[in-house]
Amino acid sequence: MPADILIYHNPRCSKSRKALEILREHGCEPTIIEYLKEPLSVEKLRSLGLPPREILREDEDEYAALQLGDPAKTDDELFAAIAQHPILLQRPLVVSGKRAFVARPPEKVNELLG
Fold this sequence. Notes:
Helix content: 25-40%
Radius of gyration: 14 Å
Shape: elongated
Mean pLDDT: 94
Number of domains: 1
Strand order of the largest sheet: 2-1-3-4
């Protein structure tokens, strides 16, 4: 089991809570970052190595208001929108080493646990 797991967490999200619960049931206590309180910078979002559309929540009001569904929006624009409006970040986002992924469904964290 990896020792250095980080979870970008929203305690109000049932899927985020479930992913954290699964990790803890397997004896893993990840570093927890409540991204709504500590938003990720554009640089940090880029460093995850995931395409911005993969980590973008499409069902938030901000998504429509900012017209983020427009295919002409660049990665720079999408990352900037997520950094400025952290509610747009898909959750839970789990990072282990150089690997980052959206744990949806939450059971996806089992891939880290071997």
